[in-house]
Amino acid sequence: MLKRLAVLTAAMLGLSVAAAHATYSVVAYDPETGQLGVAVQSRTPTSGARVRYGMAGVGAIASQASSNPMMGEIGLTLIQRGFSAEEVRDMLVKMDGGALNRQFAIVDTKGRSAGWTGSSNSGFAGHICQPNFCVEANTMTGPEVQNSMAITYVKTTAQKLPLVERLIAVLEAAEAAGGDRRGRQSAGVMIFAQRSVAGYGDHLYDIRVDDNPEPPKEIRRIYNVLQARDLPNHIGDAIAAGKFDAAFAEVDKRLALDPKSDDALADRARVYLAMKNTAAALKTLKQAIAINPKLYYQVLRNDNFKVLWDNAAYRALGDYSRFHPLAPSVPGPNSMPMPPIPN
């Protein structure tokens, strides 16, 4: 590890100063859940790809302005070696030949935070670091941006919101306070939690918007889509018990989060079919197929909709001539035959 750190440090000292990327970001640690998080928004594309760094059980780092990817790698390595956030900040500044043009924030799993704003950052730039979080901003409309970010993080923490929702709220607050004075283009949110993906990975959330006129708003929309997908689905049980109102309420919750969920609309159609209301089921499926045309063929392969397979009105909702039953899969390694290679 020490050898790798020396190589990274040498590379860091040799970096030239890149074009500045105006950005605001937040790093945070939730002591109640052990989660770490980082969120960013910038007037440049793909800020989520170059600003956010973290590791569950270690720390989170946001490196911006003239972004330096070594900040994340070296910073996390130093935290792993037992250095505090402030010590890591001081070492990173000494290592970096372009430190005056950089801005970065650090938080570790002891709630220690530290930030750096180089004197050559353009326009208004600054950071606010408190226990468990640090916010930073450059090329902003004024100090009200970082102030609003910090206040919002404290308020949403008091409200016991999940960490991911606190960070999204911080991005929204920054925009409401003026944000990047040049506009908006990209954003990203990451939440790190140990063994949160298939019992191994630590990227509990990794939401990126690389090019969008309203990136924080799009981050919120994508998060809502994920929330809708993760809601419990008891539609089948409710239908079997004849509890149609409960089934509709479940569908409505999902659609409130994700109005374009064709899956939720298909479940609503299932309820209508169970109620013997074929006309309403067909109308709902038409709406769902308008969102996702491929759903048309999935319905023709789904036993829950068997009553509609030969229904002329349903068949008219798509191109039935293209429908064909799926071949059975062959599970196991190398299950798909290699197609012939043309001469």
What does this structure look like?
By secondary structure, this protein is α+β, with helices and mostly antiparallel strands. It has two domains: 2-229, 4-Layer Sandwich (Glutamine Phosphoribosylpyrophosphate, subunit 1, domain 1); 235-322, no CATH class. 41% of the residues lie in helices and 21% in strands. The chain contains 13 helices and ten strands. The strands form two sheets. It has a six-stranded antiparallel beta sheet. It has a four-stranded antiparallel beta sheet with strand order 3-4-5-6. Helix 6 (163-176) runs antiparallel to helix 7 (215-230) and helix 7 (215-230) packs antiparallel against helix 9.
What structural category do the secondary elements indicate? alpha+beta
Low-confidence stretches: 4-22
CATH evolutionary superfamily of the largest domain: Aminohydrolase, N-terminal nucleophile (Ntn) domain
| CATH architecture descriptor of the largest domain | 4-Layer Sandwich
Q: Largest sheet, if any?
A: 6 strands, antiparallel
Just give the CATH class of the largest domain: Alpha Beta
Gyration radius over CA:
25 Å
Mean pLDDT: 90
Could you say how many structural domains there are in total?
2
Shape: elongated
Spatial order of the strands forming the largest sheet: 7-8-1-2-9-10
Strand coverage percent: 15-25%
Query: Could you say what the CATH topology of the largest domain is called?
Result: Glutamine Phosphoribosylpyrophosphate, subunit 1, domain 1
